[in-house]
Amino acid sequence: MGNQKKIIHIDMDCFYAAVEMRDFPEYQNIPLAVGGDGPRSVLCTSNYQARQFGVRAAMPAIKAKQLCPNLKIVHGRMDVYKETSKHIREIFSRYTDLIEPLSLDEAYLDVTDATMCQGSATLIAEKIRADIFKELNLTASAGIAPNKFLAKIASDENKPNGQCVITPDKVANFVEQLSLKKIPGIGPKTFEKLNKHGYVTCADVRQSNIRALQNIVGKFANSLYLRSHGVDNRALEVSRQRKSLAIETTLAQDISTQDECKFVIDSLYQKLLTRLAPHSNREIIKQGVKLKFTDFNQTTVETQSHECQQALFLTLLSKAYSRANKRSIRLVGLTLGFADSPDESQQLSLSL
Ligand code: DCP
Ligand code: MG
Description:
This protein is α+β, with helices and mostly antiparallel strands. The chain is built from 13 helices and 12 strands. The structure holds 2'-deoxycytidine-5'-triphosphate and magnesium ion. Magnesium ion (MG) binds next to β1. It is found in: Cytoplasm.
């Protein structure tokens, strides 16, 4: 039991619709869907108010209007969703390097070795959701479990704006009662087929055997059998590792002395150390200081370094500041560069 993994699955609540409700307050208390409004268009998603009428993603707009005549359908703004998604991923990266994005609004995080929040995955998930709410004014739900399969199912349990933890000792009981239709890969048709043979919950599958399952679902039998026992050994498919860590602040008021810059750097440095914690396995190779001047031109000074040193940032600051030429400063930033980490390719086997 010593090597149990801790996986968090985070999924934004009615993502595209939530962004529209945030940016256009007039949509906040009405049933809303995102999609085209042509006669043959299909919905991308809808808010929870619209869902009460049975309106769903992938539903033709016409059908949705029949179910909910007051439904407001708006066009999607992909650029905003992408930008928001980038911000969400940046929040994830404050807690771990091991992130597998599944779509714009969804990702797995492996926090098995995370040190933040005393290593509590539950608290990390809460903090991530709080960060998202504070910085983006959007809500997310989370599932916390010993593997990807269970974490994904768990994130749906207390949606919207909730989370669900399945600790290792609860897995057996959770899976026992789980309907097979909740297993990713089982669509309505497969579910119906399984029902006909008497399989409705994971408990039914557990009492059976792989050969019997093969006759019904073919190659999927192995996976189905394992999932029904709560087993999923898939590692995260981690996207490319970050090459640097940057933190910067735009000042409320421009500053015009090097001493003031030093003061800002001291406070940024403390934040940088916190952000660095989840990347403690990475080898630092560079430090840099960035200044943006009041005319919006910017300058960056970098140097080789093997650890994150406050004094070195101040040396770099002197050099960057010497380029100010009497301009005041509107932004100060610190960066760390990382060496390529050999364990990138070690993310591994897709065994069941
Ligand atoms: N999406 C889409 N077409 C679909 C399904 C989804 O364009 N058929 C887009 C719109 C969603 C986003 O992807 O907002 C995320 O998909 P989810 O399945 O996570 O759905 P939501 O986030 O909208 O709702 P939920 O609160 O159920 O997660
Ligand atoms: Mg979602």
